[in-house]
Every structure is written in structure tokens, then in C-alpha cells.
Design a protein that fits this description.
Rossmann fold, seven-stranded mixed sheet, two-stranded antiparallel sheet
Length: 226
């Protein structure tokens, strides 16, 4: 995630390109750690959502999908979760492993996460869906839902909006990443069509000076028990 986005563009979201996305995040990974690894300290709402999630999943197996440098996984581990992380960027996974040696991290695409069916008590997707177009969300969430055990819980966060943005750089490093924003109805439809029962969808405004100044959507959902 970049420190600043340009104004929304009159453009359609491009399909997920795993090779390009991995390469971009490999290039920015070290700067990403410097800017993002400690950001939860300035985000009380996020911490409250993660605290609630940790209480609900207990000591069941949790995947932090699109884990980046592992700051969310680390937060959950410190609250007693049995958590591991996956990310599409090998460099991110390497840094996450160095920064959090008590947690396992693996390279994987969210479309093919390599997780056995019905094994996860919990799944977090903190801004890891933002490089998928809205039309791809159902397929991705369906794949992730299959990895969740009955009653397993999902917590996701996305930027709220209607236009994709292409910053062209992150911290001065050129990238081709496109950041897709989503509306509440798009998230509701995607979760429902993926076979997940929506628990809660909430909005928050940005923390000024702490993160990219965009509105956010947080959603919690539950895998079906039958």
C-alpha cells in the first residue's frame, strides 16, 4: 500500500496479474516494512477488530492471506492465535519470516492458496483483495471459503470507493500496481455468492497521517455449518 494515491481515474479495474504483482511487491518490500510494519499502533479500530476476531477463533488455525511483512499475523499470534501467513511476493515472505520467526509464512496466490479444505478456524484478508477486480472477488472468496471449516470466520478490509487507482510508484519506486476500491454492495454480493454468511460490515474514515487517506470497509463473515 502506498503513502498516497492519485485522484480516481476514469478506468476499469484490470484482471489480477500474479507475476506483475509479485514483482512489484518484491521491489518495494523493504520500504513497505519501514512504512507499514508498525502501522497497527496507530489504528485502534483495526486493533479492536483483530482483538474480537482473535477471541472468536481461539486457538484454531488461522491464515493471514496476503500477509505482507506479517504485522497482522504477529498481532494475532500475540493474542494467542495459531496463525500462519501467505503472500504472493517471495521477498515479502522472506522479510515476514525474518521479522516474525515464531510464525510460518509461505509464498502463495490467493486464487490457489494451497490450504487443505475445511481446516481454517479463521482467515484475515487485510487489503489483500485490492488487486482483484470486483468481478473476480466471488471466485477468490469461494476458494478461500473452501479452506475454512464450518463456522470459521473471515475478517477482511478494503478501500471504499468506485474507481481504481494506479499510483505508478510507491515510496519513489516505480510499480504497475492497480489498487481497486469497492462499494459496500459489491462486498455484500461477493461474500454472499461465495457462500459466506455476513456477520457485520462497517465503515471507517481514514486515520490522518497514519495511512493512505481513503475510507475503509471492514467485513466479517462466517463459513456455513452445513
Amino acid at each position: 500500500m502506498t503513502d498516497s494515491f492519485p485522484s480516481p481515474e476514469d478506468a476499469h479495474a484490470e484482471p489480477h496479474d500474479p507475476v506483475s504483482i509479485a514483482a512489484d511487491y518484491d521491489r518495494v518490500a523493504d520500504e513497505y516494512v519501514r512504512h507499514i510494519f508498525g502501522e497497527l499502533a496507530g489504528k485502534p479500530f483495526d486493533r479492536a477488530m483483530l482483538d474480537r476476531f482473535a477471541r472468536l477463533v481461539g486457538d484454531g488455525l488461522v491464515c493471514d492471506a496476503g500477509c505482507g511483512p506479517g504485522h497482522v499475523a504477529r498481532y494475532l499470534h500475540e493474542r494467542g492465535c495459531n496463525v500462519f501467513g501467505i503472500d504472493i511476493s517471495p521477498r515479502m515472505v522472506s522479510l515476514a519470516s525474518e521479522l516474525n520467526p515464531m510464525i510460518e509464512f509461505h509464498v502463495a496466490d490467493l486464487r490457489e492458496p494451497g490450504i487443505l479444505p475445511a481446516t481454517l478456524a479463521g482467515l484475515t484478508c487485510f487489503y489483500s483483495l485490492i488487486h482483484f477486480a470486483a468481478g473476480e472477488l466471488v471466485a477468490v472468496l469461494t476458494t478461500l471459503r473452501r479452506a475454512m471449516r464450518p463456522g470459521g470466520r473471515l475478517l477482511l478490509a478494503v478501500h471504499e470507493g468506485t474507481e481504481p487507482r494506479t499510483p505508478g510508484e510507491m515510496w519513489g519506486i516505480p510499480v504497475s500496481l492497480q489498487f481497486n476500491f469497492f462499494t459496500r454492495p459489491e462486498i455484500e454480493v461477493a461474500l454472499t455468492r461465495a457462500g459466506l454468511a455476513i456477520d457485520e460490515i462497517v465503515h471507517r474514515e481514514p486515520y490522518l497521517g497514519v495511512e493512505v487517506e481513503t475510507d475503509r470497509i471492514y467485513a466479517t463473515a462466517i463459513a456455513p455449518c452445513a
